[in-house]
Amino acid sequence: MRRRAVAEAIGAGERLHAAAGALLTDHRRAVDAVREAWAPIHADLARSELLRIPADRLAHVTEGRLRPAAVAAIEAAGFDTVQRVLDAGRHRLRQIPGIGQQTADQALGAARQLAEAVGETVAVHLDVDRPEPRTTALVAALYPLVEAGPEARRAVEAATALDAGLGPLLADAAPAAGRLRGWFAGRERRERALAALTEIGRRTGRAAADGVPVLLGQASVDLLRAAADEAAAWVDFELRSAEYYGLLAEVTERPGGGADPAAAQGFLPEALAERVRAQALDGTHRRVSLRGYQSFGARFALAQRRVILGDEMGLGKTIQALAALAHLAAQGHRHFLVVCPAGVLINWTREIEARSTLRAVALHGPGRHDAFADWRGEGGVAVTTFQALTGFPEPAAEELGMLVVDEAHQVKNPRAQRSLAVAAWAGRCTHVLFLTGTPMENRVAEFRSLVRILRPDVAPGTGELDAVAGSKAFRRAVAPAYLRRNQRDVLAELPGIQWTDEWEELSAADREAYRVAVRAGNFMAMRRAAYARPEKSAKLARLRELVADAAANGLKVVVFSAFREVLGAVEEALGRQPSAGGGGSGLLFGPISGSVSPARRQRLVDGFGEAAGHAVLLAQIEAGGIGINLQAASVVILCEPQAKPTTEAQAVARAHRMGQVRAVRVHRLLATDGVDQRMLEVLDRKARLFDAYARRSAVAESAPEAVDVSDTSLARRIVEEEQARLGAAG
After folding, report:
1. The domain over range 255-490 is classified in CATH as 3.40.50.970
2. What is the pTM of this model?
């Protein structure tokens, strides 16, 4: 190899190695900043908890080795809590009459054991409504890591591999850098140097082809970026709290985020849990960080192969499924299929594209058979509906890497056509994952139907007696095929808000009503056209599904709309559903509108809050978004996007406020290719600037119209654009 070529190869390797090292240094600095901000907050929380634990608990920890009389003497000396025992130390404990060295050591050992357990479970809560200097510093430290996003994780993984691989290669290649040095190196070292040069060239070439240098450079820039100011960091946290908490758990090496490890693992038998933990999980094709319980859920699906993931709504079942798909794709599988209700098909394709590098193929609509042929040839994650699945030929054995069935309780009837189609596809696939947020413990017949499709060997153990024996016994019986975690068990910090944009494809009736409104140039009619034909409304169908899911989990729901006509359609739709065990709306309150007197409005809110279990409150967004407390609700449904960012924020804030004991999940119903999409395109361009500055300023409080974009020209422009797009000018 010529001298110049050698120099160029070594130079390219050194530059790539330096870039990898710089990124790792930047990432380590960002991680250390988070840990330094977190540690004193966590230590104080743990100390406060230990100050509440009475000293007599020490006897339980030592299983009787610490005598009750010794514990009583320690308490009488003023060390009446676990923390005070720790503060006392061995010397002060031994000064207590009757406490010798062995007893003092036993007491301290037990106290340290309790302190370790408390340290693992206590969670730091970031209260956006009560920011203080230490929590503000922690949010500001997390901001660059969150802003860097999933690409930073890929960059750090690539940098780690390059740093470990290129360093030794560059050292081996050093003798080739100079003629004399190479001459005196000896034959073995010269050969090793040439081999190293070849490998350096291969790795740098591959890295360049994969865009790794650009990835490393961009990640370093992102990690060095600080929040514009403290208010901007808090606003960003409020918008993406789940990402902040997820990264905090990852950075502080507490995958459970303060949750009980057994709860995060669904209280599975230890032997099974150990097998799941040993399952590898390749994140090459994944673009999202996983919480500890989410990683366990994906590993469970892979290790057990044919399972039901029954996590409570809002715990990220979709992300766990994508993590399993990404792992299988890294192992060489090319074809995957997701079957879901039509109302969530668009969300699935968007999630696949946003959260992974996998190709999403929608098998829906008139062109679904052409799309199916394309998917069979090119691969990717196909997404189809229960109805459409019946029209596709079944795959060859083992052709499908994984079959994912969302809202799997919809195939509970073994004689239904959709159930037969799902069973036929599942029979030809090694990995099958059923997703359902509907609790199965009290629906044994339905559960047995699902298990028969997945694991006939487990089905005999799901008889009525197993259910009667209690949920723990039932869980043990179905553990090989069923994993469910509840939000209260695994989200110790209860993230503030989880936003989900529910994109719906308009039905033919919806589209016709929308075209009529566009032709008339009626902006308000365009916004509510998706509800003009309630019996055929795609948005209403999805709203009923969301309410049914909340009902199954005993959650309260608030439904907001700007239009009384829309709330009337919702009221009729929910009122038509059975409420006793059939996934209906349960108790229905409202609607609250501007014409409802304050006294009656308060009675409606009180009745909603005091109702046992599931209930639904309907409210006009301007009337229900201000001045009332809806902290009983943990699910908020926005029937359409609002022109003012403050309108949505104020409405959601009625539920997301101090006293809320559950995470608030917000579902915004949106229609594709219409006024909703046009409004979001305009609003999204200004939303970040608005949220970062105006929302926490005196200007926003006194004159929201100064920063909102709900002016008349916006409506006029959207009407004109839609008329031009549809060729429907009035």
Report:
1. no
2. 0.66
